[in-house]
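ok, trying the design again with the full structure, not the truncated one.
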């Protein structure tokens, strides 16, 4: 048994397809299939059910795959620990961010990362929160930038900043004529929200509950940009994070941004990593780059003056 064979098995479990798993592992399909059979022979159990156009794991196969994930993660941490001991700012850092933050935050911090850590290979993953948490546990990510709270006590985190929400409305909407919005102004309103799985949806639902508003049940967006365009098309109103309406994001025609009066709804953004990580001291330094954003980027502003 070796780490390579365990990697083949885990990849096959993830993709459920021999050809795709072989391609992902950069080997031929017969090679991968042979190594899986050798692993089964050594363990004296069947790990995979082979059927035309279908690959399933046996019950014991599922258990072995989970153990293999831990072994591979520990082995990778061992290599990373040795490498970081030599030079903490070299090598690769795999960072996960969720979709309602990544495109709006990264343009402001990546140039600084390149300047401060020129030898760091930064690999970025834009995934939903649940997927980032899973990838952290599987060792596929070194760190994640997520919104608190985190439902995982095996992770430690550092708060980076607080990001207020703003209200996006069409220009003809009654709330477009208010300079500042109170949460109670949303009472009985119907808000456009993202689909299940987005943490921004959960935050918006909290605001709806607090304000006595409700979600628009006939439409669930797949992205923040879809929500923006739906507002522009007079389809409704929505909440947006402040960074999503700041330059270099261009203002959208017929979308008016209105700020909330204090206390404004907000989300708390943090960087998290495994408590067992070998990169703990470097992670804290790396987080500095995300926690020192220009203060103006996190101050919400109305998109235009109210008409007289």
């Amino acid at each position: 048994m070796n780490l390579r064979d365990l990697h083949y098995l885990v990849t096959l479990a993830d993709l459920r397809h021999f050809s795709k798993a072989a391609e992902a592992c950069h080997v031929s399909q017969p090679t991968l299939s042979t190594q899986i059979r050798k692993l089964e022979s050594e363990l004296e159990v069947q790990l995979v059910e082979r059927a035309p156009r279908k690959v399933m794991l046996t019950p014991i196969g599922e258990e072995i795959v989970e153990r293999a994930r831990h072994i591979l993660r520990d082995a990778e941490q061992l290599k990373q620990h040795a490498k970081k001991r030599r030079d903490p700012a070299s090598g690769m850092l795999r960072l996960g961010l969720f979709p309602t933050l990544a495109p709006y935050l990264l343009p402001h911090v990546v140039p600084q990362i390149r300047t401060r850590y020129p030898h760091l290979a930064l690999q970025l993953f834009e995934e939903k929160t649940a997927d980032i948490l899973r990838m952290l546990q599987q060792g596929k990510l070194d760190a994640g930038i997520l919104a608190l709270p985190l439902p995982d006590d095996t992770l430690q985190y550092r708060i980076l900043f607080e990001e207020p929400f703003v209200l996006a409305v069409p220009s003809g909407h009654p709330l477009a004529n208010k300079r500042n919005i109170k949460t109670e102004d949303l009472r009985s309103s119907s808000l456009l929200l993202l689909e299940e799985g987005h943490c921004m949806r959960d935050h918006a639902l909290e605001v709806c509950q607090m304000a006595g508003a409700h979600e628009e049940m006939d439409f669930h967006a797949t992205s923040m940009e879809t929500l923006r365009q739906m507002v522009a098309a007079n389809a409704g109103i929505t909440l947006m994070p402040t960074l999503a309406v700041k330059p270099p994001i261009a203002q959208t025609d017929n979308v008016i941004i209105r700020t909330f009066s204090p206390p404004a709804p907000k989300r708390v953004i943090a960087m998290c990593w495994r408590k067992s990580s070998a990169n703990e001291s470097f992670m804290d330094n790396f987080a500095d780059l995300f926690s020192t954003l220009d203060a103006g980027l996190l101050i919400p502003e109305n998109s235009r003056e109210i008409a007289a």
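Keeping the full-length input from now on. The domain at 90-308 is CATH 3.40.190.290 (D-Maltodextrin-Binding Protein; domain 2).
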